[in-house]
Amino acid sequence: MNGLEALRSVQYVTARGKRLAVIGIDEWEALIEWLETLEDTHIATKAYEELRALGGDREQAGWLMWDEVKETLA
User: DSSP string spanning 53-74?
Assistant: First the structure.
């Protein structure tokens, strides 16, 4: 299920005079995953555009060499 399907699965209820949206936990998790993917895609696109604007020079763009940082992430 993708984010749009999750949004379409919303059911509505009225409680205490307010209209509320109700969504199942599986749909909620799919929606969160979809939003995180959109955010990641935006970050990657921005990084690529910055790199391209610098003529592909990774060092000038501030990118680090994988071999120099991989142990700090373990």
Answer: HTTT-TTTTTPPPHHHHGGGG-
pLDDT digits (tens, 9 = 90+) for 8-22: 889 999 999 999 999
DSSP 8-state class, residue 12: E
pTM of the model: 0.69
AA letter at 57: D
What domain range includes position 8? Answer: 3-73
What is each CA distance from 26 to 9, 38, 48, 64, 73, in whole angstroms?
10, 18, 33, 37, 31
When divided into structural domains, the chain yields a total of 1
In the block, which residue shows the tokens 């060092």?
59
